[in-house]
Amino acid sequence: LSGGPLQGVHAVVTAGPTHEAVDPVRVLTNRSSGKMGFAVAEALARLGAQLSLIAGPVSLSTPPGVKRIDVQSADDMLQASLAAAAQAQIFVGTAAVADYRPAQTAPGKIKKSSDTLSLALSRTADILSTVRDRHPALFMVGFAAETESLVDYARDKLRRKQLQMVAANEVGGGRAFDVDDNHLIVVEAQQETDLGHAPKTELARALAELIAARYLALNPS
Ligand code: PMT
């Protein structure tokens, strides 16, 4: 939309899970519907930002005014993120990226033969850290999904991944994943802002406004 405070700013949002192929019919994945990320992309676009939304496999429609790039695996998401980040000023990682993928993808369907089956897994690259290394000037926001010590882990991610902000949400017990509401606490170097428990669309608007305020304070036009 024209005329918003983020007009002329390009933002990238990653959303949803990734699928890591075990064989042609099976995948390893994380819980994530993409709702939080799609809402953040829509809210930033409403503030005038030009949006690239990098979406894992989800069944959601594309928010208005947003350029959507569909990906499957963590590696696809990394490549799409690096390409989009080259033109961007703001990067928000809401995706629930698989931390491990099968070390090898079987070319044919794995047959049921023994009672147990072991899969060797290898680590995927960390998208936020890789994008940060290549693009040190980006304003970067990560998410933290934790079952305990939420703010402490979020603060640790903020420092380790050199982010400007981490939006922390508690998961487990039916919270955050898949549902329409969430509770977000935004952790920054000097402060914490509790955005409360609300529909994801509302939290996304509040988060987008905070991102815009901080970005514009650092980059006055
Ligand atoms: O999609 P919904 O159903 O609406 O649910 C929303 C959500 C709970 C998935 C979302 O709000 C959320 O918390 N997303 C991050 C989930 C996650 O995987 O968190 P993490 O603590 O494992 O990862 C921390 C950060 O590093 C995240 O910004 C993640 O995108 C990023 N990451 C993680 C792994 C990896 N290989 N590369 C990354 O960039």
Automatic annotation (TrEMBL):
It catalyses: N-[(R)-4-phosphopantothenoyl]-L-cysteine + H(+) = (R)-4'-phosphopantetheine + CO2; (R)-4'-phosphopantothenate + L-cysteine + CTP = N-[(R)-4-phosphopantothenoyl]-L-cysteine + CMP + diphosphate + H(+). It comes from the Bacteria. One of its GO terms (molecular function) is phosphopantothenate--cysteine ligase activity. Binds 1 FMN per subunit. Its cofactor is FMN; Mg(2+). The keyword Glycoprotein does not apply. Residues 11-221 are annotated as: Phosphopantothenate--cysteine ligase. The keyword Hydrolase does not apply. Catalyzes two steps in the biosynthesis of coenzyme A. In the first step cysteine is conjugated to 4'-phosphopantothenate to form 4-phosphopantothenoylcysteine, in the latter compound is decarboxylated to form 4'-phosphopantotheine. Catalyzes two sequential steps in the biosynthesis of coenzyme A. In the first step cysteine is conjugated to 4'-phosphopantothenate to form 4-phosphopantothenoylcysteine. In the second step the latter compound is decarboxylated to form 4'-phosphopantotheine. This is Coenzyme A biosynthesis bifunctional protein CoaBC. It comes from Banduia mediterranea. The gene is coaBC. The chain holds residues 186 to 406 of 407 of the full protein.
